[in-house]
């Protein structure tokens, strides 16, 4: 069931989204060669809790950390580790959420550690821009498939592939609400978009094949061919005036 939020609920939810966005900004600044993914997670948790919120991901379905930190060929759900150190040239995807006043925000971005390859830069830039191409289609009267179609077309036109097994989702009082928001699709198909919907739109884009697999820790998803992956995400509200990015800093 899709939950439509009132203006009051959107205003309350905006606080959670703002804290989430600020936490991601702080985390991104911490990404540099030599820091551990566990230390980045500690920084994230400290920031969120100091804002009076709770890290949404911590203990969510048993997840053991406050954020997902996925490096290079890891697509999503990387588990932070105090003994895993970032190397120069790594792509570091950070996914996190903050919950306060009964609502949660959800956001993600991929950061470069030191100097990265030109192809890695292309992947990052393409993935981030595809997110905004999808957001443009999050308008009342549109269809859910319009969002995925825009993301898929933008990335595939540039030689990258779209992960099929995992999608974006509704978000609000729960981290995962209806509907699922695929990063691929057919224009003009799917449910009708309406004001009050709040969606976590999150393209997960691979340099090689779209195929992925799960590691033995039962959490981390990696590219099947070992190629790089990038991940960007915003929580977006659909309003009568168009899409509003709730997890945007500033």
Could you explain how this protein is built, in words?
This protein is an alpha+beta fold and 250 residues long. 28% of the residues lie in helices and 26% in strands. The chain contains four helices and 15 strands. Strands 8-7-9-14-15 form a five-stranded antiparallel sheet. Strands 1, 2, 4 and 5 form a four-stranded antiparallel sheet that branches. Strands 3-12-11 form a three-stranded antiparallel sheet, with no helix packed on it. A hairpin with a 6-residue loop joins strand 11 and strand 12. Helix 1 packs antiparallel against helix 2 and helix 3 runs antiparallel to helix 4. The protein is globular. The two termini are 32 Å apart.
What is the CATH topology assignment? Creatine Amidinohydrolase
Low-confidence stretches: none
Task: Please give the order of strands in the largest beta sheet.
Answer: 8-7-9-14-15
Q: Which geometry do the CA atoms define?
A: globular
How many distinct beta strands?
15
- The helix count comes to 4
Compressed to H and E, one letter per element, the order equals: HHEEEEEHHEEEEEEEEEE
Q: What is the CATH C level class, in words?
A: Alpha Beta
Distinctive features:
Creatine Amidinohydrolase, 4 helices
How do the strands and helices of this protein lay out in sequence?
Elements: H1 7-30, H2 37-50, E1 54-55, E2 67-71, E3 74-76, E4 91-100, E5 103-112, H3 118-136, H4 144-156, E6 161-162, E7 168-170, E8 177-181, E9 198-201, E10 204-206, E11 212-214, E12 221-223, E13 229-231, E14 234-239, E15 242-245
Antiparallel strand pairs: 1-4, 2-4, 3-12, 4-5, 6-10, 7-8, 7-9, 9-14, 10-13, 11-12, 14-15
Helix pairs in contact: 1-2, 3-4
């Amino acid at each position: 069931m899709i939950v439509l939020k009132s203006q009051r609920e959107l205003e309350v939810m905006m606080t959670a989204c703002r804290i989430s966005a600020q936490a991601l900004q702080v985390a991104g600044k911490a990404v540099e060669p030599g820091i551990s993914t566990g230390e980045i997670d500690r920084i994230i948790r400290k920031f969120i809790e100091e804002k009076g919120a709770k890290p949404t991901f911590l203990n969510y379905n048993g997840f053991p950390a406050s954020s997902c930190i996925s490096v290079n060929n890891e697509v999503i759900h990387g588990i932070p580790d105090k003994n895993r150190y970032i190397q120069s040239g790594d792509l570091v995807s950070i996914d996190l959420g903050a919950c306060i006043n009964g609502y949660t925000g959800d956001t993600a971005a991929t950061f470069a550690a030191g100097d990265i390859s030109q192809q890695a830069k292309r992947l990052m830039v393409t993935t981030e821009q595809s997110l905004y191409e999808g957001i443009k289609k999050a308008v009342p009267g549109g269809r859910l498939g319009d969002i995925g179609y825009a993301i898929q077309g933008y990335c595939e036109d540039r030689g990258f592939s779209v992960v099929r097994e995992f999608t974006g989702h509704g978000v609000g009082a729960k981290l995962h609400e209806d509907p699922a928001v695929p990063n691929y699709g057919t224009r003009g198909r799917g449910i009708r978009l309406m004001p009050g919907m709040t969606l976590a739109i999150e393209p997960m884009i691979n340099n090689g094949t779209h195929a992925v697999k799960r590691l033995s820790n039962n959490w981390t998803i990696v590219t099947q061919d070992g190629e790089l992956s990038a991940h960007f995400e915003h929580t977006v509200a659909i309003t009568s005036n168009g899409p509003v990015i709730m997890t945007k800093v500033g």
